[in-house]
Structures are given as structure tokens and as C-alpha cells.
């Protein structure tokens, strides 16, 4: 039982793709458990760069099984495009990929519904990725969604599709949306998508549990980040799924007793795309410097990512929610040019220090960070492979973060390449890898 979950500890884009790819070797199966093609997980291998949206990063390792679990929402057009991109790079996707028959299907009218809620003055604009993710999860929870298994059912699909369309048309009329869609053409297109994906669709919960029973090792790849989790994040500025570690159980169909540990992925600073509160956000030149050095632009939408200082109270909160055993700290190299680096060690709310993460975005907006300033190291770290070879101030920075968060940083990433990674010997991280 040495299966682990890799989870984003901030607001997404922490470098999960790189860490999952780098850790893959001892694992047999890699499973995505929530989200959809709102995710963009970048893996750099030499001069090649892959941005994976729906398919787990494990697909890049020949022979590993990659699983899209029941907790995802799938835009079949986007998935087929991603498969095509990987096949063009010589990857045998059909033999490596399994897609849950219980995952829900995104249709073009989901994107239309999202545009409507994002653009109207009646609703708060979340700054979503406009992929139809939220409206598809709404249909899932509303018990009217269409799943992969329905899409493949040649008899049942047309009627299910027509019923859902009818409902959307009523809503569109009520809200005076005049965008016309050719639903007949969409239905035919989706039937064709279904045939293309059919060979890969199965009961993935059974597949994953059987693999575990055979002693195979499974890694769960989170998408988004804990602060975007629909229950625990900065609601309503969140995504519509359970991005935190608990989501792995429902989103893959495995029991908590089958999972040995959880690793949080965190940048050495913080970023966020889209709207919502961000206590340590930098709106000055240091924010621009981090954005430039870290190439902080969304891998899905290309939007500039908001940047800020490392936020220890936020990480204490996400470490608690996920029960992190260890952290992978990424993008340390991005800070190497700075002469001083601030770390938020506490929050003040209305003049008083608070240990709790407030439940409303309105209060999180009002949090004032309390900073401690540490000296930078001002030398390149991208080629360092052993912890003890890092500059003294870089180690002091990492150890300060550990003492503030209360969880070890067992893995330090100093560049986008697989090889630009430092594993700390004797860490819990090393033990989890086994
Ligand atoms: P994910 O969504 O969590 O997988 O993260 P993204 O792929 O959206 O964003 C992380 C970005 O940082 C990608 O462009 C990675 O190639 C890059 N990256 C990951 N780790 C490091 C690192 O340690 N240093 C640098 N400079 N870039 C990194
Ligand atoms: P990865 O897996 C960063 C953000 C959007 C928006 C909010 C809701 O690459 O870390 P949605 O389209 O999901 O309804 O948008 O969530 N968001 C992400 N931000 N990384 C992601 O994924 C994200 N997926 C969604 O910007 O604020
Ligand atoms: Mg990303």
C-alpha cells in the first residue's frame, strides 16, 4: 500500500505536472481525479514541452497506465485534440489511456451557460477558464448530466441529449440569450467523438482497485489547487470540484485506506489566475519581476498570473486540510535575483492577529499579512542537485518556510526540467517514494 496523492497547495499552477512526471518511475498507474481541461500541467523534457489538460502526466512514460477518473468533466473534442498532440509526439495513447465510463461530458451549451453567468452583472465574475467546467458540474450535481457511458449508448444518447438541450433552451430564452446553436449537428459530432473514444472507456475504479490488489503502485494527480477547492477554497472564487486530497477517493473510486500519503506542491512564492482574494499579492515592481522571471502566464488561457510572497498561514491551512506528509517546493530558482525576500508569517484581521482562514472571500480580502524579511542568495541554483550545495541563504529560506508551515520540504525544484530537482535524503518524501 504505497499509493500517493500529489496536490496543489495554493491556487493552482504550482508545478504539479513537473513533479508528477519526475516522480513517476516507481509507479504503474497515474490517475487524474477531478477537474477538466481548465487544468494545464506543463512537462518539459529536453527541448520538448507538453501541456497536459485532461490526461495525467504519467502518459509521457512508456508502459504506464494513465487514467481519467470518474470525478472529471470531459470535453471530448478537447480530449481528442490532446490525444492527437501526444500521438504526433510518438506516444501510444490508445494502449496507455483509460477513461472512466462515469465521467461527465461537457457540451458546447455548457460554455454558453458559463459565458452568460460570467458576463452578467447579476452574478460575481469568477474569471473562469471559460471551458464549461462549472455548468457541467452543475448538471452532474443536479442529476441531469450525461456521462461517458451515456454518450456511448447509441440507443439512449439521442433522447438524453435532446432532453438536456430542451432545458438549456428554456433557460436561454428566459435569460434572453440569442446565441443559436445547431443542436442536431452537435449531437452527430458527439456521437462521432464517442466512437473515437470508445476503445478507451471502462470502469476505471475497478481498473485502479484491481491494479492495487495486484500490488501495483498508483499515483493520484490533483488538478487546480486546494485554495480553488469548492469546499475549502476562497469560495465563490473557486473551481467546481474537490481539488484537495479527499477528492482522490471519490474522484477515482478508491478507499482512504488504500492511500499511504499526500504530497503538497507549492511554489517558493504564490500565484493566482482569475479573480478572488490574494493576501500576499504584489502589485509593484517585485511582482512584475517574479512574473517575468517565472514566466507566470497561464498555460491554458495565457492570462498573466498574479504574483505574491510566500504565504505561510495559507500553507498551514492547506497542509491541515490535506494532511500533507511533505512538500515539493518549486521555482526556487525564480527568486535567485532578489536581494530580500518577504514571507508572510501571520494574518491580521481588523487589527488583531488571526490563526484561522476566514470562511468568506470578503474577510480574506481584508486580511493584512505580517511579513518577515529574509536575505536573498543572489546566485544561480538551477544546476544544484544536492541540498547541501544550495547557497546558505537559500537553505535558510527553505528551513524558515518549514519551521513556519510545520511540514518538511522534501523535494526542491530549481528549474522546469526533470533533472532540476533536489531530493532530500532521509525525508518522509523519500520514504513515500520507497
Ligand atoms: P501545474 O498546473 O501545477 O502543473 O503547473 P503549470 O505547468 O501550469 O505551471 C508551472 C510552470 O512552471 C510550468 O511552465 C513549468 O514548466 C514551470 N516549472 C515547474 N517547476 C519549475 C521550477 O522549479 N523552476 C522553474 N523556473 N520553472 C518551473
Ligand atoms: P492547474 O491544474 C490555475 C481557476 C480559474 C478561475 C477559477 C475557476 O493547471 O493548476 P474554472 O474554469 O475552473 O471554473 O475557473 O479557477 N483555475 C485555475 N487556476 N490553475 C488551474 O489548473 C486552474 N483551473 C482553474 O482561473 O479563477
Ligand atoms: Mg497549470
Number of strands: 20
Bound molecules: guanosine-5'-diphosphate, 6-O-phosphoryl inosine monophosphate, magnesium ion
Tally of DSSP helical segments: 15
Strand order of the largest sheet: 9-7-5-2-10-1-11-15-19-20
Largest sheet: 10 strands, mixed
Radius of gyration: 22 Å
Main traits of this protein?
single chain; 434 residues; alpha/beta; 10-stranded mixed beta sheet; 4-stranded mixed beta sheet; globular; binds guanosine-5'-diphosphate; binds 6-O-phosphoryl inosine monophosphate; binds magnesium ion
Detailed description of the structure:
The protein is an alpha/beta fold and 434 residues long. Helix content is 33%, strand content 20%. The protein has a ten-stranded mixed β-sheet, sandwiched between helices. Strands 14, 16, 17 and 18 form a four-stranded mixed β-sheet that branches. A two-stranded antiparallel ribbon has the order 3-4. A hairpin with a 2-residue loop joins strand 3 (41-45) and strand 4. The longest helix has 18 residues, at 157-174. The protein is globular, with a radius of gyration of 22 Å. The site of guanosine-5'-diphosphate has 21 residues, from helix 1 and strand 3. 6-O-phosphoryl inosine monophosphate is lined by residues 8, 11-13, 38-41, 126-129, 131, 133-134, 223-225, 228, 239-240, 273-274.
Amino acid at each position: 500500500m504505497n499509493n500517493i496523492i500529489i496536490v496543489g497547495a495554493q491556487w493552482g499552477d504550482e508545478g504539479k505536472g513537473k513533479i508528477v512526471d519526475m516522480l513517476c518511475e516507481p509507479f504503474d498507474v497515474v490517475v487524474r481525479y477531478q477537474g477538466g481541461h481548465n487544468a494545464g500541467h506543463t512537462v518539459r523534457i529536453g527541448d520538448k514541452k507538453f501541456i497536459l489538460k485532461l490526461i495525467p502526466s504519467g502518459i509521457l512514460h512508456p508502459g504506464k497506465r494513465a487514467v481519467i477518473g470518474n470525478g472529471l468533466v470531459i470535453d471530448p473534442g478537447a480530449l481528442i485534440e490532446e490525444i492527437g498532440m501526444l500521438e504526433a509526439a510518438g506516444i501510444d495513447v490508445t494502449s496507455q489511456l483509460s477513461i472512466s465510463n462515469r465521467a461527465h461530458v461537457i457540451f458546447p451549451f455548457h460554455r454558453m451557460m458559463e459565458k452568460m453567468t460570467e458576463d452578467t452583472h447579476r452574478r460575481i465574475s469568477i474569471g473562469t477558464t471559460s471551458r464549461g467546467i462549472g455548468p457541467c458540474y452543475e448538471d452532474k450535481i443536479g442529476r441531469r448530466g450525461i456521462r461517458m457511458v451515456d454518450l456511448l449508448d447509441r440507443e439512449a444518447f439521442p433522447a438524453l441529449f435532446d432532453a438536456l438541450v430542451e432545458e438549456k433552451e428554456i433557460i436561454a430564452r428566459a435569460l434572453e440569450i440569442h446565441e443559436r446553436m445547431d443542436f442536431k449537428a452537435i449531437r452527430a459530432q458527439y456521437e462521432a467523438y464517442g466512437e473515437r473514444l470508445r476503445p478507451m472507456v471502462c470502469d476505471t475504479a475497478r481498473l485502479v482497485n484491481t491494479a492495487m490488489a495486484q500490488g501495483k503502485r498508483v499515483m493520484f494527480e490533483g488538478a487546480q489547487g486546494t485554495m480553488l477547492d469548492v469546499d475549502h477554497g476562497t469560495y465563490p472564487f473557486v473551481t467546481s470540484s474537490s481539488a484537495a486530497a479527499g477528492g482522490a477517493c471519490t474522484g477515482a473510486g478508491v478507499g482512504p485506506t488504500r492511500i499511504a500519503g499526500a504530497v503538497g506542491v507549492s511554489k517558493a512564492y504564490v500565484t493566482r489566475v482569475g479573480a478572488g482574494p490574494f493576501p500576499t499579492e504584489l502589485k509593484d515592481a517585485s511582482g512584475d519581476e517574479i512574473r517575468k522571471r517565472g514566466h507566470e502566464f497561464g498555460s491554458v488561457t495565457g492570462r498573466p498570473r498574479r504574483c505574491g510572497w510566500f504565504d505561510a498561514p495559507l500553507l498551514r491551512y492547506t497542509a491541515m486540510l490535506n494532511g500533507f506528509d511533505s512538500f515539493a517546493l518549486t521555482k526556487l530558482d525564480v527568486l535567485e535575483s532578489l536581494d530580500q525576500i518577504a514571507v508572510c508569517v501571520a494574518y491580521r484581521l481588523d487589527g488583531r492577529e488571526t490563526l484561522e482562514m476566514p470562511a468568506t472571500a470578503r474577510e480574506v480580502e481584508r486580511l493584512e499579512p505580517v511579513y518577515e524579511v529574509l536575505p536573498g542568495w543572489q546566485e544561480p541554483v538551477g544546476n544544484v542537485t544536492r541540498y547541501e550545495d544550495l547557497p546558505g541563504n537559500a537553505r535558510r529560506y527553505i528551513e524558515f518556510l518549514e519551521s513556519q508551515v510545520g511540514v518538511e520540504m522534501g523535494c526542491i525544484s530549481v528549474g522546469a526540467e526533470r533533472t532540476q530537482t533536489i531530493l532530500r535524503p532521509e525525508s518522509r518524501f523519500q520514504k513515500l517514494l520507497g
